[in-house]
Amino acid sequence: METIQKKYKYLFFDLDRTLYDFETNSTETLREIFEKYPLGKHFESFDEFHAIYRKHNDFLWNQYRSHIITKQDISWQRFQMTLEEKGIFNELMAKNMGTDYIQHSPDKSRLFPCTHEVLAYLQHKYKLFLITNGFKEVQYRKIENCQLRPYFEQVFTSEEIGFNKPEKEYFEIVLQKTGASVADSVVIGDDLEVDIKGANTIGLDTVWFNTVNKTANRPVTYEINHLCKLKDIF
To answer: Fewer CB within 10 Å: N-end or C-end of the chain?
Structure first.
């Protein structure tokens, strides 16, 4: 891949599944919850519990991004729906599990390989920003625990902006707050339907972090499967 001819000044990074290894960290937290309650007597295995949880979590996050439900709804209803699928009707347990997840998941600090190396490299050439839909109190703890904060000029969460990615208003407000323009900015993220689609709505260039060998269903400017490859682009 050739170095870009276009001159960017502002790089906007997604957090979860782009820098922060969300799947590894989340799975570790969920396994602790599975053992704590204990759920082995209700589910055939942790893998079954995890698969059911992910199905309901993804559904609820889509509703949250569409402003149908609140973050408080997600935090415990994803566990309630998981339990109810196995015939367990215990709202208190679901709420306790939700509290445990919010409290302990940000303490997990696995990042994708090359995260610190590439951010240190880019920091001296561009202005870096974080853009995330995650819950504010959770995301800031992740950022601090993973020692990411020094690399970034600002962090923008959907709660603080008042809109969620991929809504175009989210990206318009972020550009306004940073003084960036569409022409000199690029969004770096893993999610085609959130990061890339959102950037596309206002004409921002994109870097798609594709770690699972998917095929893009919308335009992407650049595609990488390892963060170190950002140094080949920038």
So the answer is: N
Q: 13-27: b or e for each residue (b if 16 or more CB lie within 10 Å)?
A: bbbbbbbbbbeebbe
Contact predicate 189/209, CB 8 Å? yes
Does the pTM of the predicted model rise above 0.85?
Answer: yes
The Cα-based distances of 29 to 19, 98, 99, 103 in angstroms read 18, 11, 12, 10
Tokens of 213: 């060998």
Q: What is the pLDDT of residues 11-39, one digit of tens each?
A: 999 999 999 999 999 999 999 999 999 99
| Chain centre distance of CA 228 | 19
**Residue type present at position 20:** Y
Distances from the Cα of 200 to the Cα of 25, 152, 191, angstroms: 29, 23, 12
